[in-house]
Amino acid sequence: MSLTSLLMDPESRRMATTQEIATAQGMAKAQDMLTALLPPKGLLLDAMGTLIGLRHSVGHTYAALAANHGLSVSATAIDAVFPRIHRQAPPLAFPGLDGAALESAERQWWADCIAAALAAAGLEEPLPAALADDLFDRFAQADLWRVYDDVAAPLERWHRRGLRLAVVSNFDGRLVGLLRDLGLADWISVVVVSSAAGAAKPDPAPFALALDQLGLSAAQAWHVGDSPEDELGARAAGLACLRIRRP
After folding, report:
1. Which residue segments constitute the domains of the chain, with CATH numbers given?
2. CA–CA separation, 35 vs 32, rounded Å?
3. Of residues 114, 105, 117, 124, the one with CA closest to residue 194
4. Using H for helix, E for strand and C for coil, what is the string for 158-202?
5. In terms of C-beta distances under 8 Å and separation of at least 24 residues, what long-range contacts does 1-5 make, across chains too?
6. Helices 99-120 and 129-138: crossing angle, nearest 10°?
7. In the predicted structure, residue 93 carries a pLDDT above the cut 70
8. pLDDT, tens digit, for every residue of 151-188?
9. Which helix (H) or strand (E) holds 145?
10. pLDDT winner (highest mean) among 16-20, 110-114, 159-163
11. pLDDT tens across 129-143, in order?
């Protein structure tokens, strides 16, 4: 289901939503939930893979900046290992930290992930600290990202209709600036990132935090995301989850 499909007429949207929830929980339970849920008062939205994506692969950017530091590593090799490295990393979540301490922890988390990915891709030299910092800063720049074509119009329409919108993402503090610079911030009331929330999806805590900041209960909102972590976390938080499946 795409974001655009959520703008269909109410009966078609009800049928589509029933199918999505039924996949996870069974048709009978889906019908019971829909009776209580429709129409929602708010939406929780994943970011990467749902609203925005990279213009180039991770490997492309890592290899290009590594070359600036005199290091040669294959972009293709990085792309082959990065999903596994990222998946095996500890949660990007730092309970009790904020401000400069939080950003320092975020940078170190990504430095460890970058070092592991480059080493697995064949880099024998230690990761220069300056390269890790350069990559962290580069991925904070909006020109590296794109808003998916089916995103802006639905967000604007939902905002006009009075739906309260929040982003819930397994990411870090850079996301706030990215959403602003990509032109999405005006439609979004709340941004919850796992690093600051102290827990990452599929933990239900980031969803609960977003709901609290929106002033909504789980029965008044849906979550829209693209990953198993979105579905599992939303379900644990008592939310219906609409799963985006992009090419």
Report:
1. 4-53+145-243 (3.40.50.1000), 56-144 (1.10.150.720)
2. 5
3. 105
4. HHHCCCEEEEEECCCCHHHHHHHHCCCHHHCCEEEEHHHHCCCCC
5. 1/242, 1/243, 1/244, 1/245, 2/150, 2/244, 3/50, 3/148, 3/150, 3/151, 3/154, 3/224, 3/244, 4/150, 4/153, 4/154
6. 110
7. yes
8. 999 999 999 999 999 999 999 999 999 999 999 999 99
9. strand 145-147
10. 110-114
11. 999 999 999 999 999
Q: Which residues of 62-93 are buried (b: 16+ CB within 10 A; e: fewer)?
A: bbebbeeeebebebebbbebbeebeeeeeebb
Structure tokens at 36: 């209580």
Q: Look at the block and give the residue holding tokens 């985006």.
A: 244
Task: Identify the helix (H) or strand (E) that includes residue 90.
Answer: none
* Environment class of 191 (CB within 10 Å of its CB; exposed 0-12, middle 13-18, buried 19+): buried
Tokens for 197? Answer: 């929330």
Q: Is the pLDDT confidence value at 24 over 50?
A: no
How far, CA to CA in Å, does 63 sit from each of 79, 80, 112, 114, 121? Answer: 10, 13, 16, 11, 10
The C-alpha atoms of residue 184 and residue 145 are separated, in whole angstroms, by: 13
- Tokens for 237, please give them: 């938080």
Q: Residue 247, SS3?
A: coil
Between CA 107 and CA 132 the distance in angstroms is: 8
Question: What percent of the chain clears pLDDT 70, i.e. is strictly above it?
Answer: 85
Q: How many CA atoms lie within 13 A of 169 on its CB side?
A: 22
Which of 210, 103, 216 minimizes the C-alpha distance to 166?
A: 210
CA distance 138 to 145: 11
